[in-house]
From TrEMBL:
MF term (GO), any: inositol monophosphate phosphatase activity
Chain positions recorded as Mg(2+) 2 binding sites: 90, 93
PANTHER family in the cross-refs: 3'(2'),5'-BISPHOSPHATE NUCLEOTIDASE, PHOSPHATASE
Name of the protein this chain belongs to: Histidinol-phosphatase
Keywords, comma-separated and alphabetical: Amino-acid biosynthesis, Histidine biosynthesis, Hydrolase, Magnesium, Metal-binding, Transcription, Transcription antitermination, Transcription regulation
Record: residues binding Mg(2+) 1: 74, 92, 214
CDD domains: Bacterial_IMPase_like_1
InterPro entries per the UniProt record, alphabetical: His_9_proposed (IPR011809), Inositol_monoP_metal-BS (IPR020583), Inositol_monoP_superfamily (IPR051090), Inositol_monophosphatase-like (IPR000760)
Pathway in which the depicted protein is active: Amino-acid biosynthesis; L-histidine biosynthesis; L-histidine from 5-phospho-alpha-D-ribose 1-diphosphate: step 8/9
Pfam (any one): Inositol_P
Cofactor: Mg(2+)
Enzyme class of the recorded protein, top EC level: hydrolase
Naturally occurring in which organism (per UniProt): Halomonas aestuarii
């Protein structure tokens, strides 16, 4: 447990993260299904004015409120990464969904303390759904504690990935093998999948080629709901992780997935 002073400060940081959500959500919805121009970044991923404007607004609020904190964002780079507190921002996780009118995109916000994610937020603007994970506390979904399912066997699991296009050839073979052992395999969802996992609706998510702004917010959310999230080798996720992510409802299911990865 945190001390009284620590709890007060942590509550303040979580409340501030909700301010960032309240800032980002209407900005995203103002552009959603509006046929806005789409550009291609150097890595060929799409970006819009909404992505850049939302991140800029969040960064400005962070810099005003916590000027000593660092920031890592998808669209506007890094600042002050040697700070003990670093915010990791993905203004629109799932830009492909966003620009095609699919209501499964989200805003991801994480706070790292000495490099470790201790606060994570998944916000789904089209639905208003909100998951908040805080170190050592139960994950909250729309203000109520949520929990992953009790699924402990891959043969019983409902497994997701965002898209097979996100895997390289070797990674897709691994995913195909692992997911073929599951009870059901589904595609789509972006960060929404991890919220659904935290709330017990699906049992596993497996992806690769993710960046820190794609996965750091997910860690406190999944772990606070009773699940496990690591890289494909079972190592904790951090800023230097290789982007291979597997999340599971229970330690037993996670261990079986990792065994299948190695097979």
């Amino acid at each position: 447990m945190r001390s009284g002073t620590e709890q007060t400060e942590y509550g303040g940081l979580a409340s501030f993260a909700c301010r960032l959500v309240e800032l980002a959500r209407p900005m995203a919805m103002a552009h959603f299904r509006r046929n806005i121009p789409v550009e291609q970044k150097a890595d060929m991923s799409p970006v819009t004015h909404a992505d850049r404007a939302i991140e800029a607004a969040m960064r400005a609020l962070i810099e005003e409120t916590y000027p000593g904190h660092g920031i890592l964002g998808e669209e506007h780079g890094t600042s002050n990464l040697d700070s003990a507190h670093v915010w990791v921002l993905d203004p629109i996780d799932g830009t492909k969904s966003f620009v095609t009118g699919m209501p499964t995109f989200g805003t991801l916000i994480a706070l790292l303390e000495d490099g470790r994610p201790t606060l994570g937020v998944i916000s789904i603007p089209p639905t208003g759904e909100l998951w908040i994970g805080r170190d050592g506390e139960a994950t909250m979904f729309d203000g109520v504690a949520c929990h992953t399912s009790a699924c402990s066997r891959l043969a019983d699991a409902l497994a997701y990935t965002t898209s097979p296009d996100n895997f390289d050839e070797a990674g897709l073979k691994v995913f195909d093998h692992v997911s073929s052992l599951a009870a059901m395999r589904r595609y789509g969802g972006d960060c929404y999948c991890y919220g659904l996992l935290a709330s017990g609706h699906i049992d596993a998510v497996m992806e690769m080629n993710l960046q820190p702004y794609d996965f750091m917010a997910l860690v406190p959310v999944i772990e606070g709901a009773g699940g496990v999230i690591t890289d494909w080798q079972g190592q904790h996720l951090h800023l230097g992780s290789d982007g291979h992510v597997v999340a599971a409802a229970t330690p037993e299911l996670h261990a079986e997935i990792l065994e299948a990865v190695r097979a």
